[in-house]
Design a protein that fits this description.
With about 240 residues, this protein is of the alpha+beta class. The chain has a single domain, classed as CNF1/YfiH-like putative cysteine hydrolases, CATH 3.60.140.10. Helices cover about 20% and strands about 30% of the residues. The chain is built from five helices and 14 strands. It starts with 5 loop residues before the first strand and ends with a strand.
Length: about 240
């Protein structure tokens, strides 16, 4: 559900925030500023934890006792923590950045969700890991879905169409056909996955901006020959 978002501009740096996360440090950055919003929100760059993002479905649980055992770069597409003063970051250029928080248990998560990740279950797995590792209830989890490529622009190949149409998870409904071409609605697919994981629709807010359409705001892998990437992050106070 799209319930609105706020665009903020500080020192030439534009980033987006969601009302649902008003008590949580977070930002969906644009192509202006890269990591600049970290400074705008008073977060030192060394507090940022990012992933290698391999388009899989592996979820990292980041705790104090696991920190020393990690091998960088981290080959995961989602990360969860209960640690304060650690900003969980996701880099995107068409895939969806999804941020989650359980304000009751004080748990946060950041998820990188492209078509492969959604098809492989990364969104549901992130919610399940919050349940298993930290005893979160899906009913308490708040979710913000950042800008990604929209169904207006996301044309997909026949192999992707086949995977989604044969999915056991009702994902076929998000393959749209126009003039003999197939397009994928990533945002709605992600919301279905959240619903199946038990997250109420009222707990979900999305930014309905297409990264491919909005060249003024976002990098896009589909549109640009050599795209950059924009950062999205979340941090416990």
């Amino acid at each position: 559900m799209a319930k609105g978002f706020k665009a903020k501009d500080e020192n030439g740096i534009t980033y987006l925030q969601l009302p649902l996360f008003r008590r949580i440090r977070h930002a969906f950055c644009t192509r202006q500023g890269e990591e600049g919003p970290l400074a705008a929100l008073g977060i030192p760059p060394e507090r940022l934890l990012t992933l290698r993002q391999v388009h899989g479905a592996e979820v990292l649980v980041f705790e104090e006792n696991t920190k020393a055992a990690l091998t960088y770069p981290l080959p995961y597409d989602a990360v969860i923590t209960d640690k304060k003063r650690v900003a969980l970051g996701i880099w995107t250029a068409d895939c969806l950045p999804i941020l989650m928080v359980d304000p009751s248990k004080k748990i946060i998560a950041a998820v990188h969700a492209g078509w492969r990740g959604i098809w492989r279950g990364i969104v549901q797995k992130a919610v399940r890991e919050m349940e298993d590792a930290f005893k979160s209830s899906p009913a308490d989890i708040l979710v913000g879905i950042g800008p990604g490529i929209g169904p207006c622009c996301y044309e997909v190949r026949e192999d992707v169409v086949s995977l989604f149409q044969n999915s056991h998870d009702s994902l076929h409904q998000f393959i749209l056909e126009r003039e003999g071409r197939h397009y994928l609605d990533l945002g709605q697919a992600a919301q279905l996955e959240l619903s199946k994981a038990g997250v109420p629709s009222d707990n979900i807010e999305a930014i309905p901006l297409c990264t491919a359409c909005r060249e003024d705001l976002f990098f896009s892998y589909r549109r640009d020959k050599k795209p950059g990437r924009q950062l999205s992050f979340i941090m416990l106070r």
